[in-house]
Design a protein that fits this description.
By secondary structure, the protein is α/β, with parallel strands linked by helices. It has 5 helices and 10 strands. The protein has an 8-stranded mixed β-sheet with strand order 5-4-3-6-1-7-10-9. The chain has a two-stranded antiparallel sheet with strand order 2-8. A hairpin with a 7-residue loop joins β9 and β10.
Length: about 190
């Protein structure tokens, strides 16, 4: 069975998207080492994302560049689940599968499709839900050298919640973007 990974690039000040889900700041990241993005994309069979990100990407389609218009800059192909309370509204988009279900069911369905390949969660809110259900196997973090000041926080839990992580790997090939892989520290 593949890994359930929560992966993202964030700003130094802890945002994975700017105000209104703006992603133009990703240009502040260094270009990844040759072949790196293709290699990462090849490992992922299913992406699980959220409705707010989906809607923002659709609204910004004319403004997004090659890097931000498609997953992994267009290097990825597979199944994308969009978790939403209104799946019928996405019925006309054959590029995604809209689901109205708990994250546990979405991950079970993704694992049935993924086999030995990975499942990538790219939504902060859905990843928080997956953490609460103890479904995250790995955290893949890239930090772009930019401050955003506002937007979607990596991890936002009113009242707080501590989650400890163990370092698994340091990405030496993409040093400017501070790449790290962690696994949840099980107590």
């Amino acid at each position: 069975m593949g890994t359930v990974a929560w992966g993202f690039t964030c700003s130094i000040d802890g945002f994975i998207a700017g105000p209104d889900h703006d992603m133009s700041w990703l240009s502040a990241s260094e270009p990844m080492a040759e072949g790196f993005t293709d290699d990462m994309a090849a490992k992922v069979a299913v992406i699980i994302s959220g409705r707010r990100g989906y809607d923002a990407a659709a609204a910004q389609a004319d403004e997004r560049d090659e890097l931000t218009s498609e997953a992994y800059g267009g290097a990825w192909s597979g199944t994308e689940f969009i978790l939403t309370h209104r799946p019928e509204e996405l019925a006309g988009d054959a590029s995604v599968t809209a689901l109205n279900c708990p994250i546990t069911e979405a991950v079970d369905r993704a694992q049935a499709i993924a086999g030995d390949r990975d499942i990538q969660i790219i939504s902060a809110d859905i990843a928080r839900q997956a953490l609460e259900a103890d479904l995250i196997d790995e955290l893949q973090v890239y930090v772009a050298p930019v401050f955003l000041g506002d937007g979607t926080r990596i991890f936002d839990v009113p009242g707080g919640r501590r989650v400890d992580w163990e370092l698994v790997e340091i990405d030496e090939a993409n040093r400017r973007s501070f790449g790290r892989t962690y696994r949840p520290k099980r107590r």
